[in-house]
Structure prediction request, 1782 residues.
Amino acid sequence: AGGSTSSSAPAAFDPNACQGGTLTVLNHRGQGNFDPAELYTSGGGKVPTLVFRTLTTRNHTTDGPDSAKVVPDLATDTGEPNQDATVWTYHLKPGVKFEDGTPIRSADVKYGLERSFAPELPGGPPYLRDWLVGGEAYQGPYKGGELASIETPDDSTIVFKLRKPEGDFPFLATATQFAPVPKDKDTGTAYQKHPVSSGPYKVVSNDGGKSIQLDRNPNWSRAVDDQRLACPDRIVVTSGLDQSVINQRLAAGTGDDARAVTTDTNVDASVLAKLNGDAALKKRVVTGYFGETQYLAFNPKVKPFDDARVRQAISYAIDRESVVNAVGGTAVAKPATTFLPDQPAFGYTPYDYFPAGQSGDPAKAKELLAQAGYPNGLTITLDHSTVTGDGSGPEVAAAVQQALGKAGITVKLEGTADDDYQTKYQKPATEPGLFVASWGADWPSGGPFLAPIFDGRQILADGGNYNSAQLNDPQVNAEIDAANKITDPAKAAQAWGRLDAELGKQAYTVPLFHPIYKRLYGTGVKNAYVSQWNGLYDLSRISVK
Amino acid sequence: MIRFLLRRTVSTAAVLLVMSAVVYLVFYAAPHDPAVLVCGKGCDGTRLAVVRHKLGTDLPVWEQYGNFLRGLVAGRTFDSGNDVTRCAAPCLGYSFQTDQPVLQMITQRIPVDLSLTLGAMVIWLLLGVGTGLLSALRRGRLVERALTTLTLAGMATPVFLVGLLVLMLFCASLQWMPFPTYTAFTDDPAQWAANLVLPWFSLALVISAAYARMTRSSLLETLAEDHIRTNRAYGLSERRIVLGHALRGALVPVLTMLAIDVGQILGGAMLTESVFGFDGLGRLLVTSVNQIDLPVVVGATLFAGFFVVIANAAADLLYALADPRVSLA
Amino acid sequence: MTDRQKLVEVTDLRVRFASESGPVTAVDGLSFGLGAGESLGLVGESGSGKSTVAFTLLGLHRGSGAEVTGTVRVDGTDVLAAAENELRALRGARAAMVFQDPLSALDPYWAIGEQIAEVHRVHTGSSRAASRRRAVEVLDRVGIPDAARRAGAHPHEFSGGMRQRALIAMALACSPKLLIADEPTTALDVTVQAQILDLLHDLRTEHGMALLLVTHDLGVVAGNTDRVLVMRDGRAVERGPVAEILGTPRELYTRELLAAVPRLDGPRERPAGATGDILLSVTDLRRHYPAPARRSAAPGRRALLGGREELRAVDGVSLDIRRGETLGVVGESGSGKTTLGRLLVRLTQPTSGRIRFEGTDLAQASERRLQPFRRDLQMVFQDPVASLNPRRTIGDSIADPLRARGGPSGPQVRREVGELLERVGLRPDWYHRYPHELSGGQRQRVGIARALAPRPKLIVCDEPVSALDVSTQAQVVRLLSDLQGEFGLTLVFIAHDLAVVRQVSDRVAVMRHGKIVELGTADDVYAAPEHPYTRRLLAAVPVLDPAEADRRRAARAELRLPEKESALAS
Amino acid sequence: MSKALTAAQAPGTTPQGGAGPRADRNQVWRRLRADRSAIAALAVVALLVLTAAAAPLVAALEGQDPTTYHNALIDSATGGVPIGPFGGASAVHWLGVEPGTGRDVLARLVYGAQISLSVSLGATVVQIALGVLIGLAAGLGNRLADTVISRSMDLVIAFPSLVFAVALMAVVPSGFPRPLLLMLVIGVLGWGQTARIVRGQVLTLRGLDYVSAARLAGSRRWRVARREILPALAAPVITYGVLQLPLNVAQEAGLSFLGVGVRPPTPSWGQMLSSATNWFQADPAYVLLPAVLLFVTVLAFTVLGEGVRTALDPRAESRLRAGIERRRKKTDAQEVPA
Ligand SMILES: Nc1ncnc2c1ncn2[C@@H]1O[C@H](COP(=O)(O)OP(=O)(O)OP(=O)(O)O)[C@@H](O)[C@H]1O
Ligand SMILES: Nc1ncnc2c1ncn2[C@@H]1O[C@H](COP(=O)(O)OP(=O)(O)OP(=O)(O)O)[C@@H](O)[C@H]1O
Ligand SMILES: [Mg+2]
Ligand SMILES: [Mg+2]
Prediction:
């Protein structure tokens, strides 16, 4: 494990002499629940990956396009599929241990997975329930016994039987649900207070995810883990901080803040303004991309959005420059015309069917509206969250409102508190006609990006629905199935890209922008390079010595 | 005295009871379903039902409230998967969203607000009463004008702005002190104080103006009392009159105000806590309201209300102690 | 200057205040002197400038924006010119002042002994302990029993008389040469007033202090001063030895003043007792209040349980009131007179007992059931200021009962009000005047007009004249008795001034501690009081004849001796 | 409660205690006029109100409106900071433009004044109206009513209102006009203190002789309340109301900070202040302007309040000169809040 000599990493970094010190993570949002069954993270997460090892993981060791690739973690390889990718087999590496020294067995991985089916431990991604045979009915180990479709023929082998072909299974196996959990240590919902570590750090204290302290796990070693360096002796996560305060603390870098990073806060104007004059500061800012799209979602079940011309008119009228400015400018957001993020791993295929230019094409929009029977404009409602700074908030909504106004569309804004907002738009019965939404990649592939949004079989009536267009097109469904079968990521990417370009014509969404991650780190932080999987420096590789 | 305490206890209980009922009602009336959020992506009907059951939101509102009340007196048990959690007698409920007993979440945060309140109180009393004293006696002098303007500016500026301003000024620009992070008093008293200085001052600045005004008008009122005239007629110096005789009477109404303020801040100074990133009751309240974590909302509201009610009772008690004419009835 | 310099020398004193309606000349060229050990009474009607003079002697006008000219010399200090600290050395040490209202003149937060000790320490610089000893000493001197212990009490734990004594003790603390007493007894009832005046007298004769006694009550000066100065509108009207002024006044004004003073031996307005059937009859009437919440009336009442005990404001009163008669009610302050009066007209609900009015028991009647009886039972309130809404015209206030009665139209009401105003001696076109535009006596007339408006059967007059000047007092008393004849009214006349009650009443009830201790015809009660308390009350009434006053003082001293304790505690 | 004292009171004295001084309008106005700082404050308040009312005019004068984005005037690369000194102030945009959007600051300030002033004034009116009504009911009702109402006052005072407001906002249908809602929420959650003051006053007033006299005259309870008690409450209530106002402005800002203020694109000072928190360093002008305006408003209302209080109470200043003053009667009913 050499790590790359990335441009942002100081040349003198020596992985063998990097150990020691305390790394502070200054965050705005809390980590939330720390149960591997309940976490919803991409690639094992930023902090969780320090505690939970999974069958596979994202490539931690580099910062190029390779960092968007899956690599083995607990397993010896990224998985052996059968012919049609419905059966996946993994073997555990020898010598892997829990924090208490007991060896990790395939049964522990199976148990961890089974736990994630328990409704008592909700919150994890839905794929397993959808993919595994019997998954949709299984109620977890507490009430439902064992899940037959996960087999553990021996202590180091684990076999998954899927309902349908899923070429992306190795990606899914990076999720924390694939972390081993020793059955005799499971305390149900209380497990999150002290999950048993399989990674380089163990949880010493965890205050409801608000502040977490991790110390080195003595039963972990680099000998059995080629992905993580685990340089600091201790990692302290402090959350609940004001975002401008985080930036100021990182920029000032006094005391412990010199050895601090953030995993959730972009630089703001006060830092950006200083960058050009301050080379040293500029060096401490890293830029990355996470596969994410902010967009306007239409619900064609609501008039007038059933009319494609109205949707197109809005697409033409949109002023992406204003939207980008509203969320922090070109440094942190890139105008988007495609639904898929503009990275090869997703199968990015450029298109712009309703060219709005930089600041919208109100004339064209008016023309379309007139065709649709609204020569005098119309009044619509745009729903948004009331949380500022996360791209779905009032600032974006107001920018959209302003732009559409030029095209004769009067927009009434309807803000809802964040959680209520999600509840509202994730339920077909309450879903608004037009709202600000965002979708982030569960892993860098087109599948988890397009399927939840456009797969007709993923329309969920009771909530948690993301198919906001409520599109159930057999042809689209079939194309999704076909792409899912492909186990070669490169080929799969092409298929997804094609599908996205096709769907784009329907104007079910108006892509607004792809966020750019621009993060500051403390003066005493070394080896901070950016992963293309999650757009961020990797805590398991950072050194503070 | 005993009667007073008894009566106060009963009325406090009644107030808190109604308060919790109101919170339940308001949250019940709101169109949100925490289960959907907890359940996450791709949650189907049956799973949702289980989650609702776990959160206890599947019950009608009066049953939820009844369970809550029963828990208060008799304790409750919660099923947490393969474990059963017992929540002992004054059970304020259990937050399934954070998997913690509500009481514990609250008691953990009380030291923060206690520290915040006590220190800030000292400062705002000094600043407020001092300014009030000066403006009653030395009207128009430079110091008085400066202090009055300062306190008024404090009052006019929302605390989140004051807080951020001092942070940017003292921690970022001047770098006179590190950014505050809460340190428990028991861990390191010096650090505790150092970290709290800025929050104390921001909070105090916002509050002092009211005290300045109250002290001033109350002092003027007292100075016009007949017994002050007696003091003058007996040759006491002005200093002695003000400090020895007038101020004491003047501060009695300030006491009532103090009680309400202290009670309210003890129950959570959400804006100050937000700005300084302190985990107190106020933030707990805001977070839980946003997450619709009803047990926590109810618990935190009750505590906040409890502090105010108790502080009020304390004020009456102090009132009786401070003013020999008043007896508790 | 002569070799024997006067203690107080005031020459051509003029004091002007700026007020909203232009400058007010409160004192207008007044000159007088006072030698060591002498005593001077300053009398005059309200607003004549008495207090202003007293205040200027100690330079207390400073900072009030008053414009003062002339010279004021007190024990060698030129008060008007002296520096602040020079004045402070005078105040309280060589010249001390006793104020009128003993409750508000003492700091409620400080123990009484401490307040006195502070004054002593400030002026003598003695030690804390020594000052405290001195405080106890002077408290003892003014007759506070168990002074060492009671020095630790707070003002509210003292009765009115005791507080006034404490104030005098404070004045004595530094053995001043001059004592200025500004209406030292106005707030007290007769028995206590007599005690205080006796005390002042004793102190003066013992210590040779000079005394400046300010009062509007001519009876008070009679027994307590050598000389009298009568003031009016800031000027001296007449001055001379007390016996001369009170005996053979030269000035018309002084004569008027004297004539208006009600006397125990003066003519009675109602020579014959009227008889009629029983109009109102109360039986075993009680009104209890849940303990003295704030001001405990007597010391040591703050029990651990916050005063479980009840305050029996009216404690088992039985009484018949006959149609057409005037029933006088006398008694010391706090004896329950007002409460009884309010019970009779059912402004207050009795705790128990019966109130039969023309055959109906009103004791527990609801407000609605009372409605038809409201007009029959009226009340004239003690305080003419507080009994009129300052924000409404007097006509409006008087019209209230007429309007509530329903029926009459606007002009009709207006006319009736006009008639009533006229009847009480006011001008009918004053309908639109506000209370503040009237004098005290005029306001009291408005109160009477309002009580008359609904043509009541019974009017309870609660101390209708005690807030008024003697001259106004006489007018109002006469008015009431005229009206009684004219309207066939029944009156309950409450007062603490025995002379006034005697003047107007057919029968008199003497109240004490919520009970009626004596009830009889006015002649009987005044001529041959049965109850010792009644006797004490009568003995305490100040008289205008200085010689008689001395005699009475001696009699009081005798009467008091065995009862000293209890009298002080009340 | 209050008991008529026996002692003589000289006629001509102003009535004291609960009765309060006679609030003759001309007299009050005359006294207020004599108070130079109060007049200055009044002028400022008038100016503010006028400017708010004439917001469209002011904006038109400048040639701007509060909602148009000017992307060309901000530097997108550095987060949307206005180009040019002092927040991009220019002859076109007199007070510069808003960072992130380029909207005109002056236009937003004057339009924001509309919301901020009307919300805070409206909320104050609601608070006072509720407080007076409820306080009256408590003070005049029977023991039971008083107890129940007093406890609800405790309740309202004890409620963490800011958070409760957040929750309440979610319950109310979205069609409801936001400024009105804000006004109601702040008002409805804030009447406790006023009610408590009013109740205390009423308890004092209730014992006054002139109120008793009105009862004897056969007036019904409501009439007594309206004619005898309400007018006497005017002075303390007006005084308290004026002091409450700035607090309500701050409350609106607090709600904006918590994300439940006015809806975009409507500007309010609170909204501007809370969005300004991120621009301390990058664009200080943007923070300064609403803050200064808020300060001026609060200062003006405070000074005005002080002036009104003094003007309503002729004793206030003269009492300072404690020298010669008539013996005052004090109704000893300083209510201890139970
Ligand atoms: N501080 C003041 N400002 C304005 N006028 C005043 C002031 N003090 C007293 N006066 C006026 O001066 C006159 C004399 O007042 P003073 O108090 O000396 O009368 P008094 O004889 O003591 O009356 P009373 O018997 O009522 O006490 C009155 O007209 C009064 O209104
Ligand atoms: N509303 C009340 N609540 C409690 N105590 C009261 C109330 N009204 C009167 N009292 C008490 O009842 C007692 C009798 O009072 P009341 O006013 O009837 O006496 P009074 O004889 O009229 O005295 P005064 O001569 O001073 O007017 C006093 O001790 C008084 O404090
Ligand atoms: Mg006087
Ligand atoms: Mg009385």
